[in-house]
Amino acid sequence: MTTRKSTVIPAAANDAAGRRAALLVIDMQNDFCLSDSSGSGRPLDRATVSAVVENTRRSVGVARQAGVEVIFVRFLGDEKYQGPSWRERNRRLGKRPRCREHTWGAEFHRVEPAPGERVFTKRAHFDAFLTAGFEEYLASRGVSTVVLAGLYSDVCVDSTARTAFQKGYHVTVLSDCTTSLHLDPAAVLRFMEVLYGARITSWEEMARTGLWATEPAG
Hints:
About 35% of the residues lie in helices and about 20% in strands.
């Protein structure tokens, strides 16, 4: 077990151009990591999700050692938080609420915040930017590059990446720290690369180069 030397949040690391990065860990929760079903009509690929969890755990450790701030985003799907269209979709498709508040399913799975690390809670939202105080916090920390890990690349990771790009943030996606729910994983990553100019890399490459905040070439 790694012993953390400090509970003080470090300033997010800068690259040579002065850009500052933060690692966003999205929805690494029991209901998403351990469910018997993907919710999309096909079995959940448990081996892939397990690998994503382990890679994300490693990326968090590397980020902390590099002085890159780690921010956790979690989801609560209680019906009381759902809008009318969300409730109607669930009724029509027979979907049950996931990650209900104060349940085991909503708890973090194998990757947890260190003391002092910020946690933002999405209440029946895909996009982290719809969470009160999230964007303001990034601005207060001087973050200009968001590095994304978590579940799922074609749902909450993509929703957050899309808004981040439109708001002027550089986007990096750790390809081995995410997987898709409905769509082909490689196609989702390629989509984000083409549409958002996202840098697609791996946690090992980030650890090797230390280039957390470098924007994509070209």
